[in-house]
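Worked example 2:
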Amino acid sequence: MNRYTKRTFLLEIVMIAVGIVFAFPVYVLVNLALRPSANTSSPIRPTTSPTLANFSSAWQQGGLGGALINSVVVTAVSVLIILTVSSLAAYPLARSAARWSRGTFLLIMLGLILPFQLASLPLYQTVRDLGLLGSVWSLVLFYSGLQVPFTTFLYVGFLRALPRDFEDAASIDGASQLAAFRYIVLPMLKPITVTALVLNAVNVWNDFFTPLLYLSGSTHQTMPVAVAGFFGQYVSQWNLVFAALVISILPVLAVYLALQRSIINGFAGGLKG
């Protein structure tokens, strides 16, 4: 049996302290979101008369409904395209030992080395020429191209660590490479797929610069841009700002709670692989 030692006690104290440090900003966020506008006391002081009126006001005045729908559509479609393209591209790159495979992989990896800021102007001109400025599909196109190299890199590393025994057995039974990938390899990619899903979804959902650039001047906006609009319009009404921040966090939090076990297993399996 493991004995409870002084070292265990110290580790528990450290973990509790770290938990408090991470929980403190969340407490301040929720505390101010529930605080009436007339209450100007310290943000640390607990709100004695919480109200939900800040959320309805932020929702109506900030147009958060449309922004929420746009963010969900952009994130869901972008992540779906990223995972599909990256997994299909990584499979032949990881399994083939030909020179073209290595060259193609290095070419894709250039997307990780070159900062996208260098191509901001050409990308903007390309989106303009395609007539996609002001459309959420311009963001889908941008994120799909930006995140595919990184996600492909994750898939290739994971696939190279997987044994080929099941694929060889499927090939002997007459299965094509696409069928072997769909029925044999794809289920084994669940850990790294969940890891890539979380990383890409958080990155797309929280991005501020790209929606501000490509959706500027249109009626469409995403949640980060909509929340940022409160800082200029309601500079003294911080309760609305924090209420909008809470609303923007809830969808991501709901997805995490729904997929909590898969996400934890995915990170653990992805790191192990």
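The chain has a mean pLDDT of 84. The CA atoms of residues 54 and 160 lie 51 Å apart.
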